[in-house]
Write a structure and sequence with these properties.
The protein has 309 residues and is of the alpha/beta class. Helix 9 links the parallel strand 7 and strand 8. Helix 3 packs parallel to helix 5. The strands form 2 sheets. It has a 6-stranded parallel sheet. It has one domain: Alpha-Beta Barrel (TIM Barrel).
Amino acid sequence: MGQGASPDSLGKDPGWDPLATAVAEAHERGMELHAWLNTWTAWTGTTPPPQSSPEHILFAHPEWRQADSTGKPMAFNNSYTWVSPGIPAVRQHVKSVVLDIVDGYDVDGIHFDYIRYAGPDYSHDTWSEDAYLLAKQGNPALSYGDFQRTLLGDWVYETYKALDTVAPAVKVTASVWGIYQDNFGWGGTSEGYHDYYQDSHGWLDAGAVDAICPMIYWPLTTPKGGWTDFATLADDHVGAAAGRHVYTGLSADYDSFEEVKAEIEYARSISAPGYVVFAYSTLNKKGYGPMLAETVHAEPASPPPMGWK
């Protein structure tokens, strides 16, 4: 789910299978292929999806959109239009997509991106509000934020267990907000836990994912601990691994390769089992690929083993 398509392609068979081709090409090169899903995003841009067969879900189910605190459904905009994980049919639909992928393709992993709410004002759709009122009857102190964090975490855990039953070797990973909680007194930051109702550290603790990839797209600071410092955030996430993996996410969009290299070396120094660079296209544009091969990746790197799989 997630990315838009051109009006002349949505719903049409392109004549070849892109995912099957990608899996075959990756495996031929000794690489793993993890299917990447924008979990709760349904379309991008101000223009609605074109009419197609099958019909786009935002036409088939306009009621699936996340709604703001006034109950107004999200409109098409310059970014994504999101569907609500608070709606049971949405949760089942996305889980079915995940299970369909592992049933039809020899993927090595499922990677969840945008596995959060759209923002602190979302989602107040009718289903979520009704479910919250019901849950509050049993727990009067329950906040709406805690309700949404629990709902999202339960879906992650249930989907992980469903995958473990049908495809136990498939790895489940998630891109998560770079700042879990601002416990550093920085201020002026967004927090995954409070602003997007994403309890990524709780998912690790519950064994609901095999790995998280926190998007720490800020540089190292001198001295350590400055505002949104990469090292401070990497320490925080890796320290919450609870026996699972944390792959530090880092940006390639720096004017100097030395920053990219230094962040990789720092991740290694704290025994992070891996890192993820955003993005491959940026590495190419900056010309950093050969520099990686000459320095921190002079030797081949193998996927870190997951002893619990």
